[in-house]
Inverse folding.
């Protein structure tokens, strides 16, 4: 039954107000178990009032209140938490794959992902248009933060990247990113040289621009952090600083083939010192454990029956072939155990980094070219891997929707269910603090105050299924 301007009188205390003044909201959620990852506890029997995409009021249902709302949702003691953030995704593949990338948007929502951090691609113009439409409410999708084009060396590894060789290039590149405007700077290590890399960090820091990404293996992450580097994507570069043999091995010009030897020489005592130094800089690290496991076995695993494969466009499926072929070649070479050796150490690094105070970010690295790492589902996989690596479910969830906003200095508007925060919410059938797998039990998603029950999410997915 459609409810228009429905009046809800919650008079659950022994005494009610004599002359209650009704407050009108867009959405009212009642009988909610709010998931509080700051305290690690559940706040039972709560209400959440939303207007204009913002949480306006919360409180216990036992309080005498008078509220009017256009839409009332009695969640019947289900669990409500902030929407998930996937802090490392990609929209890319060129103009021909723009629509297939756009079809990722409902996949994110279906898995409760209400915000993504795009780490560089070659369809920025489309991404900016989608972001505008999402903000305007004319397109269903997660909030998008983007780096815009990546910065790389004279031979960029990815299409759409900006080549940076000297200080003049640095100025031009950062001017270009600010004109977009991008939300942060993503640096890649296809061919960038250490001098240019450090120059980007210095200039970006002076401009107040956030920086993260890859780095040349001959550069040093502690030096980079001192120059203003805010974060590191993946664990290769932190791992390198935790090996006493890293500098000599890096000079062998073996590329990432040297990482297995670096992993074998990982020194926990040295690592502890490195972690503490990075933590002092309020550093962020995105481990991307889940995709690491997928790529470690992509040469032999059969993904033809994957549940989400039918939602991936033909063009993007074709981009998966490169990773598979590369993995098969590696399996026949001396570097065949590269992923297995490093991924084991990567998992060992997560809990000590977290305990040292490094800001761990949950990111999936999903998107075109990253084989069988599906939007939405992949961040669930990453959170589960973080728990397997030693974090509690509460700690793992913090790496998504608490540390994500923290990277952008937006903790005042995201990260918890309190007055004044953006109304990005995920309603679950079971408690995720007890078992991280319960994040799979999505009941309803609310993005900027707009309600998407599971039935609506299913219809959105059906529309993009191939």
């Amino acid at each position: 039954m459609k409810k228009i301007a429905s009046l809800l009188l919650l008079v659950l205390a022994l005494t009610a107000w004599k002359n209650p003044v009704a407050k009108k909201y867009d959405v009212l959620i009642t009988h909610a178990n709010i998931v509080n990852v700051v305290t690690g506890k559940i706040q039972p029997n709560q209400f959440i009032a939303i207007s204009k995409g913002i949480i306006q009021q919360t409180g216990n249902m036992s309080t005498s209140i008078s509220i009017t709302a256009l839409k009332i949702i009695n969640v019947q003691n289900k669990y409500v938490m902030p929407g998930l953030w996937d802090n490392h995704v990609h929209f890319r593949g060129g103009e021909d794959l723009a629509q297939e990338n756009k079809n990722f948007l409902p996949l994110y929502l279906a898995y409760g992902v209400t915000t993504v951090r795009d780490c560089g691609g070659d369809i920025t113009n489309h991404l900016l248009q989608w972001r505008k439409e999402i903000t305007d409410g004319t397109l269903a999708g997660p909030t998008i933060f983007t780096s815009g084009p990546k910065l790389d060396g004279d031979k960029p590894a990815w299409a759409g990247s900006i080549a940076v060789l000297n200080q003049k290039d640095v100025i031009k590149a950062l001017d270009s990113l600010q004109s977009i405007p991008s939300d942060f700077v993503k640096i890649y290590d296809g061919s960038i040289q250490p001098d240019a890399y450090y120059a980007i960090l210095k200039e970006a820091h002076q401009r107040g621009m956030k920086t993260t990404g890859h780095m040349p293996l001959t550069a040093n992450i502690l030096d980079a952090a001192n120059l203003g580097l805010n974060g590191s994507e993946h664990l290769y570069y932190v791992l390198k600083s935790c090996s006493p043999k890293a500098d000599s091995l890096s000079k062998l010009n073996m590329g990432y083939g040297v990482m297995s030897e670096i992993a074998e020489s990982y020194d926990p005592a040295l690592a502890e010192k490195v972690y503490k130094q990075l933590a002092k800089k309020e550093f962020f690290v995105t481990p991307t454990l889940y995709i690491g496991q997928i790529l470690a076995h992509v040469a032999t695993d059969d993904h033809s029956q994957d549940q989400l494969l039918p939602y991936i466009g033909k063009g993007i499926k074709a981009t998966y072939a490169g990773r598979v072929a590369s993995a098969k070649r590696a399996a026949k070479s001396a570097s065949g155990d590269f992923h297995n050796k490093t991924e084991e150490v990567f998992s060992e690094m997560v809990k000590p980094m977290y305990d040292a105070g490094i800001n761990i970010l949950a990111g999936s690295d999903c998107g075109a070219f990253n084989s069988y790492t599906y939007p939405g589902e992949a961040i669930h996989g990453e959170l589960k891997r973080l728990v397997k690596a030693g974090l509690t479910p509460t700690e793992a969830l913090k790496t998504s929707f608490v540390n994500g906003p923290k990277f952008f200095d937006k903790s005042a508007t995201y990260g918890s269910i309190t007055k004044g925060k953006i109304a990005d919410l995920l309603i679950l059938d079971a408690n995720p603090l007890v078992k991280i797998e319960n994040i799979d039990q999505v009941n309803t998603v609310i993005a900027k105050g707009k309600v998407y029950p599971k039935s609506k999410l299913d219809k959105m997915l059906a529309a993009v299924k191939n």
User: Anything to note?
Assistant: Residues 1-20 have pLDDT under 50 and may be disordered. Residues 287 and 406 are 17 Å apart (CA to CA). The first strand starts at residue 6 and ends at 10.
